[in-house]
Each structure stands twice: as C-alpha cells, then as structure tokens.
Amino acid sequence: MPYLQLPLGPLQTNAYVLSNEKSEAIIFDPGSESDKLIRRLKEENLKPIAILLTHAHFDHIGAVDDIRKEYSIPVYVSKHEEDWLAKPSKNGSGRFLGDPVVIDAADHLITEEGSFKVGSFAFHIFHTPGHSPGSLSYYYKKENVLFSGDVLFSQSIGRTDLPGGNHELLLKSIHTKLLDLPEQTYVACGHGQMTTIGMEMDSNPFLSGF
C-alpha cells in the first residue's frame, strides 16, 4: 500500500505518509520526533508536498514546523482550530506537557467539507467534530483509505473530555459520515492499529445503540 504508518512520540501518535507513483508525499499529523520522520522519508526517497492535519492537539502537531522548514511545504488545518497551533491552552500542551507546543500559523485553512485536492492527490474531506471542534477526516478513494485522526479507532472512539469535546456530536459524526463509506474502507487511526469501516460497524462497542 502507498502509505506508511509511523507511531511517534510518548503517546505513539500515528503519522501517516501517503505517496504516489511520482514519489510525491502527503504527511498527516507529524506529531513528534521530526528526525525520525525525516530519516524515513529520505530512506523511501519521498518528496513531501504538504502537511494535512486531522486536528490540532499537541501530539499531532509537534513536528509540524520542523517538517515544514525541511521541505518548504504548506500546512493545512481546519478553520475551527486556526488558533490552536499557537495556543498551548487549546492544543492541550499547556495541560499535559512541561514544554508548551507552539507552532507557526497554518498556511491554509480548510473551510468546508467536500472535494479537496493537493497536487495530484484528490480527497473527500469530512468535518467530523466531537473529539475536537475542527476534527477532519480525509477519504482517499483511490486507495480506499480514510485518515481519521482521533475520531474513530479500532474498537474505540476518540476521547471527548478535552476542551471542545462532545460525545454525542462525535457519535453523530461517525454514524452520519464515516459509516456511510464502503465497509472495506481502511481506517488509518490516530493511535493504534488500522481497522476497516466494516469491522467497526460489526464490533465496535461504542457504536451500538446510537
């Protein structure tokens, strides 16, 4: 498959690298350990063209500036979390880390759902709030994979006890948007192992009875 999963940092947050036949690459959620990520990109001879953020919690953004500087590429984030990158009180680092995470402003704000293209990569973006107000899920139909951030996990869902979290809204996001995707769709989760839409429909205990 043309994507890599790299668990990074103390929370083992999954960064994903999606590539094409030209060795161009999209980086999702470079949360930490920029040296490790850059080394892997060089080993694979990949040429990053953009950073896409599923949301702006600290464990998903910590290496953004290092990667952006290394490759001179733009960063995309939801308009709903525009100021989270530079505010530890919002990105969670002020609460959970000794060293606050402060990232430069994103180059582009994602303002709506629907078709979205970066280079030759064509996605469908779903606004999937609940874990955070600006959570985005990126569906890459060409390879049948959804980059879901911390919205949907294998046998679990994202936590909703952080600022801006909403349990009912998260369940609504999953049921009305993600579960309509083909059951064989791979789900590239923000933490832990990958899963599929079908597997979560059949056995995720958080999704029954909604």
TrEMBL record:
The keyword Metal-binding applies. Keywords: Hydrolase, Metal-binding, Zinc. It holds the Pfam family Lactamase_B. It comes from the Bacteria. One of its GO terms (molecular function) is metal ion binding. It comes from Alkalihalobacillus trypoxylicola. The keyword Amino-acid biosynthesis does not apply. Its cofactor is Zn(2+). This is Metallo-beta-lactamase domain-containing protein. Residues 12-191 form the Metallo-beta-lactamase domain. InterPro entries: MBL_Glyoxalase_II, Metallo-B-lactamas, RibonucZ/Hydroxyglut_hydro.
